[in-house]
What does this fold into?
Amino acid sequence: MKEELRSTGDQIRDYEFSEIEDDPRFLIINKEVKFAYILWIAFAVLSLAAIYGLGGGDPLKYTYIMGLPQWFFAYVMIVVGFIVLITYVVKKRFQDMDLD
Amino acid sequence: MIEVSTQSRIITTAVFIVYLLFLVGIGIYANRAMKASKEGFAVKFFAGNRDMGPIVVGLMMGATMCSAGTFVSGPGLGYKQGLIWVTVVLSSAFMNFYVLGTAGKKIGIMSRRIGAVSYTHLLRSRYNNNKFIGLVVPVLTIVFFSAYIVSQFIGGARLMEAMTGMSYFLSLFLFAVVVLIYTVFGGMKGVSLTIVLQGFLMTLSCFLLMGGVLGRINTEIGGLEAAFKMLAEVEPSIISPNTYSIPMTLSFFVMYGIVTVGWPHTVQGAITYKDTKSLHGAIISGIIVVAIWQGVMTMMGPFARILNPELAVADHATQYLSLTTLNPFFSGIIMAGAASAIQSTIAGMLIIVSSNIVKELYIEYINPKSNDKKQQKITVISTIILIAVIFLFSLNPPDFLQLLITFALGGLGATFYASMFFGLYWKRANEYGAIASLIGGFVYYFISSIVIKSLAFGMQPIVMSSLVSTILLVAVSLATPKTPKNVIQLWFGKVENKIY
It folds into this structure.
């Protein structure tokens, strides 16, 4: 059975991180992670604005689009929009890389 | 009980039995496929040979997350709380993107580098093979996932009982036996193949229900807008978002968003995908199907409310709608769809519990030199015992079960999120910080969800608990020595020789 690489080697704790040469793939990944977090913030902000901004009033006075209350319809459109946006970014901007 | 003719019940049951037979068949096929492969047992059984493509990974992650909640209690809550519940649940559509997009690639690289088939192994390796972490993470995972599996079994058996008229015991037994067969024989491969069938059924169910229900709303009430206007007069909270405060809604966005990296069962997809093309495809397929499943099914709640404001048990909304808007054959499909959601979650979690027992506890601490045959035997035996224990708990659920279940998802997410995320991306995160964050997150979740609820500040407890957990990880890591150089080299640096 192959031995997995174990990290119980010398327990050197006194060193500088700059001594370690970063795997370039990880640097690419870091950018993609940042993007994901920014996207989450954008989604949360936009959604909350639509939901409570448009829906905060009296339900009896709601406008309806395609049978749905306006705030809900707007939110569904945001979700659809983000599905399209994520699909585009993942297909066109996220990088393929060798995993080994 | 919803009144339905015996003939209808028979047709529905028949469709469901055919579905169960398909699952068994897939389990057997997967077993043969596994035998033909030359890889080690653990990689084949728990990681699907790291060979899973975009549709399978996407569906698997989505279906593991969508469980009885999606088809039963989700619509039930939609019935009671209305559109704002649909809103927050719909945000979970992006889960695949958050898990795969914020952790997928690095986990893919690292799990290959160190031969990891589980979340536990990744955490243990990153944190210097720390013994506390190596024991606590698997134990927590085993205990809480098992509890969650029990809740799924109960939900599934009750659904079967209600729709087919079989006894609770028999429903439970059938459920358990079928899941046992395709997980024990098929392993991850069996699970992944069944999930393709199940994902298809779940999607089909959504379209059938939506069609039937909208049809009925149009004929009986004269359209959606008229229906909502009616509700606005009678029960405005159903269509107003103010049923949840802004912090509460935001907390759901957090829970179903970035914190999902703390959930071992969805992260498993990041360990099994074949290549980055598959990963990218899994993100896209995942967000589309989960949006459909979650969006459509929770909408059934308010729709059921529109059609029957007097429904005795809100959780019966899905059954009520399928039995009153569709013919028995399609009702059988819906049942198979609901069962699919439940079984896929059970199977996904079972594989993880099993891998924690076998690989992360038995092989790691008891018998590191075991060969493939031995590992397989232990896996089969432990899975059978596990399902038997779960079956017994499901027959007669003890009171503390509800506690464990509440904990299972939110609690684990809060406990693990910080150590996993910062472990992946912050070199300074060390084992002491991780231990502090595990304990802190767990304890804070317990206190803020059960003992002093005001500590959750009007949000889902997972939010504050994750925050506390993160602060502890950062503070304690900075106050203690760095992680040893060879670990950081392994986790952040270039590794010249291929290890695995």
